[in-house]
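Changelog-adjacent note: as of this version, every example in the card shows the full chain rather than a window. The one below runs 262 residues end to end.
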Amino acid sequence: MKCTVLIENTTCQDDLHCEHGLSLYIESKKHHILFDTGQSALFIDNAKTLGIDLAQIDTVIISHGHYDHGGGLLSFLKLNSHATVYLHETAFHRYYHGPEKYIGLDERLQDSPRIKRITEDFILDEEISILCTAGKSEIVPVQSFGLSELKDGIHHPDQFDHEIVLMIKEKNQSILISGCSHKGILNYVHWYRPDVLIGGFHLKKLHPTDHQYELISLAEILKQFSTVYYTGHCTGEKQTELMKTVMKDQIHAIQSGSVIEI
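Full-length structure tokens:
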């Protein structure tokens, strides 16, 4: 399996864009997969620079209903006429950061025939499964960090039941792809026990100075698993650097242009 980071908050090449968002291009034995689309069409420009033909994509996963993971979807659908898009049934609900900032998906996409909404785990084939996080027993409680869902005019703390993950089985390894791990990175590792985990940890709100003990403790727990982690976007650069002092080569930072081969 080969995973190329199309967009991330930072870049490792001067000729590649970066933005607050995440988009991954994944080549497996049977599939060409687009996992998330960042917040704009910049991932498309980066794909061209990297020599990646997005017209080959057959499967798209939008990990959850936030603009920085699905904002570029409309642009993608205009250049690719056949890929099926998978997202959770609740991904088009009204999501906010604070009381006024809408951070949800483009509502114009709701009726697209290209989109398949799922409410339970979906096994595409023996290689790929799309897994729902809703309803799973939590080892650690979910923290909303000020993110909410608007229901009947009232903001409720987001429980992130709209978040889905991608599991790839290849070479006797399980590779978990997660957008933000909003339900808690420890929950994801406990639930799925992957050999490799690629995605965000949603730790940016935990500043390394004020939350050093919490981040170090998290790193100590993650280190106990055999999982190798590739992380970026909502994890935070300084947070990743601090965790690396504990986890060493078990954790790696990703940027626009990063390539992971497994």
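Structural remarks: Helices lie at 42-49, 67-70, 73-79, 185-192, 212-223, 237-247.
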